[in-house]
Each structure stands twice: as C-alpha cells, then as structure tokens.
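Subject: Carrier domain-containing protein structure
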Amino acid sequence: DKNTNEERLKKIISKQLGIKKEKIDGTTLIMDQSLTRPWGKLMDLFNALHREFDVDFPVDDISKLTTVQKVLNYINYHQENT
C-alpha cells in the first residue's frame, strides 16, 4: 500500500537522520550536493530501509535517490515488479 509505505519511510528517515516526521515530505533531501550527511549514516538508512521493505539498494542507485519521493518511488516500483 503506497500510503503505508510513505508513512513507514518517513518514520525510518526521521529515526535515522534525526528529522522531525512532520517536517518530512516528498521534497525532503536525503542526500544533498554538499554531502553534509556522512556516507555511513546514509548506509545505515538504506540498510534500515532494506530490512523494512525487503528492497535492495545498490550503491549506484543510492546516489540517485536524493529525495524522499525518489526513494518512495523506488520502493514502490521494486515491490510491484518483483
């Protein structure tokens, strides 16, 4: 369910990146151009997302998943096509 996935995604991002859940929307940046978030923290986030959604996130794909909406689309696509 897409709405459920969005809520689960927001909860994990909030916990892993320390962003208040109510401040997270589709445009929220997971990764920004200045790379202010350490790579290890991003890997922890994507490992948590893998456990929650049973979707693999290859490193080459992670670098393209810059916003919450892109991550949500990726999860939904891979759940529907596996």
